[in-house]
Design goal:
The chain has 239 residues and is an all-alpha fold. It has a two-stranded antiparallel ribbon. The longest helix has 34 residues. About 3% of the residues have low confidence.
Length: 239
């Protein structure tokens, strides 16, 4: 299990306080599984390759399909995303840092039943979201965000309330994804956690600025294919 440090631990490392920070966790008894150079390769090189792949896919899509360069197409992916990409996007968005780390943690603690019940508890909101998405598509086919639906149905006060909730949710989830990824790279390789936290989102910013919402779908497709491939390759080793 991980050993994490708090403020009290900093006081116990009088001469080495600069090597620790509150909340830092030690997963491998003071060492790392991989060299620090691998961490930089994963964050910088792999991030660059993934960004170039996504950008190339977006360029090919705009080159050989009927692609509109309007802001409407940028924010809605042209309203032409099919079921396959939608499924990949849902799976990719659901398989975030908290899911991977916590499911592994409960699997270590409770065996196979741990990740099963962890996933079972999260399927409820996915099913409800699928039903809600279908109904919104039927009743408000030209809307862009859920906030537009809230304002049209319940008025300005509800719209402002949900605006605050959605903004806070985006901030919390984005922070969790960045810090979770940085913590994993730091725990495995010893790479500076602050450098990893700043560098991880850079590639995402580039291809999202280029392709808008459709870039998110393409990246989700690549993410899902990548970790599915890793999962199939390691399946025999685990079982």
């Amino acid at each position: 299990m991980a050993e994490c440090y708090g403020w009290q631990d900093l006081l116990n490392f009088a001469g080495r306080a600069g090597n620790f920070y509150p909340g830092q966790c030690d997963y491998f008894g003071g060492g790392t599984v991989l060299p620090q150079a691998i961490g930089w390769v994963i964050v910088v090189a792999f991030g660059a390759v993934f960004t170039l792949f996504t950008s190339l896919a977006l360029w090919l899509d705009s080159r050989f399909t009927a692609h509109s360069g309007s802001s409407e197409a940028y924010t809605t992916a042209g309203r032409s995303v099919k079921a396959g990409l939608t499924a990949c996007d849902i799976v990719s968005k659901w398989t975030w840092a908290a899911t991977l780390l916590q499911s592994s943690n409960v699997a270590y603690k409770y065996g196979v039943s741990g990740p099963f019940w962890y996933a079972a508890g999260a399927t409820i909101q996915v099913l409800l979201f699928a039903i809600m998405a279908v109904e919104i598509k039927r009743k408000a086919p030209t809307c862009h965000t859920v906030l537009e639906v809230v304002r049209a149905r319940w008025g300005t006060v509800a719209h402002l309330t949900f605006l605050v909730f959605c903004l806070l949710t985006n901030i919390i989830v984005t922070s969790m994804l960045i810090l979770g990824g940085a913590a994993v790279v730091n725990g495995l390789t010893g790479m500076n956690i602050f450098a990893a936290a700043f560098l991880l989102p850079v590639g995402v910013m580039f291809y999202t600025a280029q392709g808008g919402l459709k870039a998110s779908y393409v990246a989700s497709w690549a993410n899902t294919g990548g970790w599915r491939g890793v999962g199939f390759c390691t399946f025999e080793l685990v079982w």
